Amino acid sequence: MNGNLASFGPSIIRYQTEAGLENIRFHKTQCGVELLLNVGAGHELQQISPSFNVHDSGVYTTDSFEIYFFKKASGYVVLNQRKIQVRDNTVLFMSPFQKRQWELDKGPLDYTFLIFQEDFLNDFFADKLFTYRLLYFYQLDYPLDLAVQKEELESLCGKLTEIKSELVRPKVDSEHLVRSLLYYILLKLNRQYATQNNLPLEKPEHNYAFQFKKLIEQHVKEKQRIDEYVALLGISRITLNKAVQAQFHVTATHLLKQRLVFEIKNYLIHAELKVNEIAQVLHFSEPNHLMRFFKAQTGLTTSQFLADYQNGTIA
Questions:
Q1: Final residue of a domain: which of 197, 218, 248?
Q2: Does the model's pTM come out above 0.85?
Q3: How many Å is the Cα radius of gyration of the chain?
């Protein structure tokens, strides 16, 4: 593998295997602007690693946020345990460590990717909750794709090309231009995503809802009670629930249970663990407690879910 592709700009992606899955890690190089961000055309991913094949890939994860802008494509990707159709003029959103598998048709394929790490946005915009304010990341209730008009996609890709130019040929003010272009793209997509899914975009009175979402991502494996999160936040259950309802149109309990169910499903699908082992990893006191919780939330036993998933019944 070539670990220093000048044409790829100031950062690379290295492929490593962990726990039977291919894991793609983001690293900075020493050339150009040292940013944990990259932009490129689809063929550049295969230049980095021939093993990456959007026509027929294995299951893999990454440690970065990714947005794919498809001008031409057909097929699907299995992402977040969902089978998502990929079509022309589609934007696809991926969050860190989501397991995915591509199966795009062999035909005309034209797309641009935008990849960055959370630390990059936190530092770049001085907002530790910025990624949690973007409705399409860490999303379990609504779609992970967005249909856009051809003209709008061309406009977004044009701005991505400008970012690429600044990364490859940096100037003294390149970081400021990259910052402004990226901010525009992410917020523009957030507005369109909110409109498509009837989600609120009003400025929140406080950050409790976003802080709660971040804490769930950090602690879901060992904390499964709302009281544990309100203690971390230093607020009441009523205050937390009001904030979550206003921002996400669901209860705080729904967000927490939904994320825990997703974690259980991930272990069932991708890890060679028995239910009692999953219960131990997720700090359930008894395997039966996990199975009852899963059945109550999904209407299926763990065995039924896994069988349905393997048979393609659950898409």
A1: 197
A2: no
A3: 20
